[in-house]
Amino acid sequence: MTIAHPPLPYAQDALEPHISADTLATHHGKHHKAYVDKTNAAIEGTELASKPLEEIVHHAEGSGNKGLFNNAAQAWNHAFYWESLSPSKTEPKGDLLAAVERDFGSLDDLKKKLKETAVNHFASGWAWLVAKDGKLSVTDTHDAGTELVAGIKPILVIDVWEHAYYIDRKNLRPAYVDAVVDELLNWDFAAENLAREATWTYPA
């Protein structure tokens, strides 16, 4: 068994004009694939070769295997990021909207917090909307860091590595973050993650 490199959940040009097909060809087709390929190479012939990616990430983190963790966690983070985006504009509703208003005051306040966290994150990493003990919060992780191993439930994520936006925006991370938060976040996916018992699982 090998870890899959799942296809995008939409056409490569579906996020234009906010994220270009050129960016997705590089980001999904090369960066994400490289993390998958390196993970598979690292686990080949070991007992991890038959395990789901989530278990590999946890094992790598717990054993201090930084190389395996970096690639496995990045493979998971990227697949979760693709699902966190939608070519069709969505809005939170129902239980998700109620939780947002309870924990942030309003959707606008949540969006402001996400933008501030993503824009101000130093160097490479990720900005997350997460749930823990029934409460929503915004966090960030550095490099390949993932909230998958933190004992909390990831709800949405924004990739703030330069390769997520540099082709389209050069060094203008705020413009990329504004487009993602205002136009592309998949609130339907967020609602599913909030409602599900377990954490989202990487496609087999």
TrEMBL record:
The keyword Oxidoreductase applies. It catalyses: 2 superoxide + 2 H(+) = H2O2 + O2. Pfam families: Sod_Fe_C, Sod_Fe_N. Belongs to the iron/manganese superoxide dismutase family. Its EC number is 1.15.1.1. Mn(2+) binds at H27, H78, D159, H163. PANTHER family: SUPEROXIDE DISMUTASE, SUPEROXIDE DISMUTASE [FE] 2, CHLOROPLASTIC. Keywords: Iron, Metal-binding, Oxidoreductase. PROSITE patterns: SOD_MN. Residues 6-86 form the Manganese/iron superoxide dismutase N-terminal domain. InterPro entries: Mn/Fe_SOD, Mn/Fe_SOD_BS, Mn/Fe_SOD_C, Mn/Fe_SOD_N, Mn/Fe_SOD_N_sf, SOD_C_sf. The lineage of its organism: Bacteria, Pseudomonadati, Pseudomonadota, Alphaproteobacteria, Sphingomonadales. It comes from Sphingopyxis fribergensis. The gene is sodB. This is Superoxide dismutase. Residues 92-192 form the Manganese/iron superoxide dismutase C-terminal domain. It is an enzyme of class 1 (oxidoreductase). The keyword Metal-binding applies.
